[in-house]
Design goal:
two-stranded antiparallel ribbon, globular, 4 strands, 427 residues, mainly alpha, two-stranded antiparallel sheet
């Protein structure tokens, strides 16, 4: 009988480690001229935290019968939970990008067809006539951010394969369709007066992270409502940003920089640039190095994303100048980041959303249950937020290419394990 033990052999793992380490060292060597030996040494320490156990864990979340990935082990092993679109898209992206699968296409196109078709068919069937995608374990009564993020995840699993979604997505309505006639848009996007009134009721100077998260999750719908809504929002944001620190709150903290990250990442989609990028840069850099007690992964991930977004809002000359300033502090910044990342690591090689010291576990995502309570475990979202996501923005901020965490040979291990799950579930 074909079993997982036939795949995970000592010889196979040892061979993979040699291939992976060789490719990593080649990538590290290419960084020395721009980053310096000290910085590369700190990068190496971070990458030493990532081994095949993470990939074995990830493959174990695949449900071959349904065609999706679970959020975590406790979701997979207990009644009441099922695979979900966001976790599945995040898993596909992680495998394709972090295992350096070839091609410039969308991640779903890079994995074997036997998996991509199964995933796409499953996602396709979850769409409702209103254009949104709903899961049987949650129903339709879910927060707006949950619906919006599932739309974003679903189309990435369906349309890159050359197939249209069953119904028109809420973010793909005809441009000439007035917002008031689009039943999928929320009430505050049915008119500019309603949107303006809604904005006036937001406490961005006290809750920029929560507000930014909402805007970030629903930005595509604001864009779909029309350019006048985008212009109104950007104008309002610019008026409320503090010129002293480039934030939407008076103090620099993990939370206020998280708000910067969420909103700054929307600016390019809105066709706008941050009004005070140099000040935003300094605030984000302070968050990267902050010794404020760490609670969850986004506190170090979002700091790097905010820093990178700040640089992207600068003109080319200024951006180059600030990247060079950043490289001068690279060893310390990378060391501190690695220490923070390690706080989210779990014993099975995966990473969690919350740190162990926080005593918290991730049971809900966008207001819906995704895992058991009181279980210290890695989850797909937390794994990405703790590893590939902060590193992607960190290397981009330095202006250098990020070495993938793994290699194509590692992906083959994942695919074989997924195949084995399919065989075992059918037998």
């Amino acid at each position: 009988m074909y079993t997982i033990d036939d795949i995970i052999t000592e010889e196979r793992i040892e061979a993979l480690r040699k291939i992976r380490n060789k490719k990593r060292e080649e990538n590290f060597a290419a960084l020395v001229s721009s980053m310096g030996e000290a910085a590369v040494d700190e990068i190496r320490k971070i990458y030493d935290m990532f081994d095949e156990r993470m990939l074995i864990w990830l493959a174990g979340l695949w449900d071959a019968e349904i065609g999706g990935f679970y959020f975590s082990n406790s979701a997979r092993d207990n009644d009441g939970f099922l695979p979900d679109l966001e976790s599945t898209n995040q898993a596909v992206v992680f495998i394709a990008e972090q295992c350096a699968l070839p091609g410039d296409e969308m991640p779903i196109t890079k994995i074997p067809e036997r998996f991509s078709k199964k995933i796409s068919d499953w996602a396709y069937e979850l769409q409702d006539e209103d254009g949104y995608f709903y899961h049987p374990q949650w129903g339709k009564d879910v927060p707006h951010t949950r619906r919006s993020r599932d739309v974003m995840a679903a189309w990435r699993l369906i349309e890159p394969l050359g197939r249209e979604c069953r119904y028109v997505r809420p973010t793909k309505r005809p441009k000439d369709e007035p917002p008031e006639s689009n039943p999928t848009l929320p009430e505050y996007l049915r008119s500019t007066d309603a949107f303006s009134t809604w904005l006036k009721g937001q406490q961005i100077d006290k809750r920029s992270y929560q507000f930014g998260h909402f805007i970030n999750s629903t930005a595509s719908q604001i864009i779909a409502a029309g350019q006048e809504y985008v212009d109104l929002l950007v104008s309002w944001l610019n008026e409320h940003q503090y010129s002293e620190n480039g934030l939407w709150e008076p103090q620099v903290s993990y939370s206020s920089v998280n708000g910067l990250m969420k909103l700054a990442l929307c600016y390019p989609d809105f066709g706008a640039a941050l009004p005070y990028p140099e000040k935003s840069y300094e605030s984000a850099r302070a968050a990267v190095l902050s010794d404020e007690p760490l609670t969850f992964a986004c506190e170090f991930y979002n700091a790097w994303a905010a820093l990178n977004a700040s640089i992207k809002s600068m003109d080319e000359k200024m951006a180059d100048e600030y990247r060079m300033k950043l490289r001068a502090h690279a060893p310390e910044m990378i060391r501190v980041t690695g220490e923070k990342m390690a706080k989210c690591r779990v014993s099975d090689g995966s990473f969690a959303y919350f740190t162990a010291e926080s005593g918290k576990v991730c049971t809900h995502s966008q207001g819906v249950p995704v895992a058991l309570d009181n279980v210290r475990e890695g989850d797909i979202n937390g794994n990405g937020c703790s590893t590939s996501a902060p590193l992607r923005h960190m290397f981009a901020a330095f202006g250098v290419e990020k070495p993938p965490l793994f290699c194509p040979e590692d992906a083959e291990l994942v695919f074989e394990l997924m195949d084995a799950k399919s065989f075992l579930e059918k037998s």
